[in-house]
Amino acid sequence: MHDCIFCKIVVGEIPSEKVYEDETTVAFLDISPVTKGHVLVVTKKHFKDFLETPVEELEKCVKTIKKIAPKLMVALETDGFNIGLNNGEASGQVVKHLHFHIIPRHDNDSLRMWEGQAYQENEMKDYGDKIRKFTIEL
Amino acid sequence: MHDCIFCKIVVGEIPSEKVYEDETTVAFLDISPVTKGHVLVVTKKHFKDFLETPVEELEKCVKTIKKIAPKLMVALETDGFNIGLNNGEASGQVVKHLHFHIIPRHDNDSLRMWEGQAYQENEMKDYGDKIRKFTIEL
Q1: Quick check: A68 and B138 CB within 8 A?
Q2: Rounded CA separation A135/B26 (Å)
Q3: What is this structure's pTM?
């Protein structure tokens, strides 16, 4: 896509630290890493977000993450990793080209991704009901 | 697996707000949601984490997320969502049974998942080199 920075990285028009490439996906370092070695996995084809991406293309990304993640653990001597995907601006998605994040983690790196909260009484069931109205048809 | 809380949820030994189920996956509400309506997608079979889960089972989870996420958007009138997976205690993984998080998001909900940092000069290339030593064989 004409103005997409990730499309330009895919074809090499914009330089990047690529760490993996196959027929359908590319992996390269995030220039603004949550932790050092933070990798993005993208489809070569342009899709705006998770919702717009065909499931076959998502599966290819998962295959790539599955290949890369254990190598990251060894290469960076990490203890774990987070996989993340943001869909929509509300979620923090900045570049509108499908990408998964792989964020290397170390024990006691003091990073906390998120905080859980509590449901009020019956509220959880209400949310379940709301959602099931739409998932019942699946 | 004998002592796994998610295995017990899968078979109904522990109650949960299930919102979707098929032959290989189950989706239910997280009891400690980051945002209300936060859903977990798990494999029915027990796998400790992402690294231990066969890619076919991961793909089934992705298919389930792909089905559920748009329904969540409609049901909860949200503007986006985050998908997350934590691998290993260092990453914040609590229950040792593979699970993906789907976290509904609203515009201006003031939640910030993570913060990027900057690489020092040449540091990004060094990280790329470190990782490529191991990904070159893929």
Answers
A1: yes
A2: 12
A3: 0.96
Which one, of A77, A88, A3, A86, lies nearest residue A36 by Cα? A77
How many angstroms away from the CA of B12 is the closest CA of chain A? 16
Is B2 designated active site?
A: no
**What is B76-99 written as a DSSP string?**
HT-SEEEEEEEESGGGT--SSS-E
Q: What is the DSSP letter of B93?
A: -
Confirm if B20 and B68 have CB atoms less than 8 A apart.
Answer: yes
Full pLDDT tens readout for chain B, 138 residues: 779 999 999 999 999 999 999 999 999 999 999 999 999 999 999 999 999 999 999 999 999 999 999 999 999 999 999 999 999 999 999 999 999 999 999 998 989 888 899 999 999 999 999 999 999 988
Contact at 8 Å (CB) between B30 and A30?
A: no
Residues 12-51 on B with a CB inside 8 Å of A are: 17-20, 27, 29-34, 36-37, 39, 50-51
Which residue type does B114 have?
W
Place of tokens 């509300």: A90
DSSP 8-state code for residue A83: E
